[in-house]
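[Q] Does anyone have a clean structure-token version of this?
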Amino acid sequence: MTAAGGPVRVGDRVPTLEDVARVAGVSRATVSRVINGIRNVDPQLHEVVWHAVGQTGYVPNRLARSLVTRRSGTVALVVSDTESHDDDPFMGRFFADPYFGRVVGGLMSVLRTAGVQLALQMVGTDQQRARLVGDLRNGQADGVVVLSLPAHDPLPRMLTDAGVPAVMIGRPAEPVPINYVDLANDTGAGLAADHLLGRGCRLIGMISGPADVPASTDRISGFRRTMARHGHAWVPLVSGNFTQDSGEHAMRDLLAAHPGVDGVFVANDLMALGALTALRAAGRRVPDDVAVVGFDDSSAAVAASPALTTVRHPLEDMAAESARLLLGHVEDRNLRVSSVIYEPELVVRQSA
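[A] Here you go.
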């Protein structure tokens, strides 16, 4: 082993696997297994080897690696949408939404350690989806993590039919034999209902996401079911599309139709920010006049004024688990299709 602090000198020559093995104090075979992403290596050895890679300046030969493993060393995060995004080549909408940034952070926490690169791609037309699947079958990436936005998205079925290792974040809208990691959205919505009722709210409304998106339908059903168990047979509901502007418009509509509303569950934090704007404009104090509960526990919840009471959606943890699940299926194509469901929790702040 070498002394800490400073890179290891190997002269003017290009560092080799042997140099990494010498610095790490392990065998050349162990270094090869770590760098090639082969699992079942002790996590401590994994860390030691990558530290030695950094010390020596060794650069893995990705072409040689791909010839040995028949893998590209890359996985793709694919956002399947209803729009082509040709007019947004830098994916501005993608990076403007804290949801996507949290997903990327969670994925990278696992992929970086495994020495796997992440590629981002957005597809919004059938032609783009078909081209993507063709590229994946030709080895452009070893597998995909999918964020599916359309209600009737053909991409999950296309991926499974093509035999591409894939994991969805969020359950598929239609029955498809694909791996997925999801949140118990209905349970989270029930937590919001219980909290608003516990505050003594009498007329409680909901601002939902699109009614044909699985996460949205689960939150609607969970909220309505819990309200019904407490004797509220009907809940006024206005739909948004998970954007701040839509939340503001929905809150205005809800107040216009039901001016006596004193509690509202908003199906994501961005829409809740919009709802707060509409309530301020209407002269309603939060939480004194109207209590507001959001969903996600994103940076928007903390930035809100007042800070949002919200249902925690552990996106970083879910994304990290989807990366682990995907790497397992890349290594062993015979693993059974599986799902992982996370449990939500309520984070109480000033808005309710």
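[Q] Thanks! Anything notable?
[A] The first strand starts at residue 74 and ends at 80.
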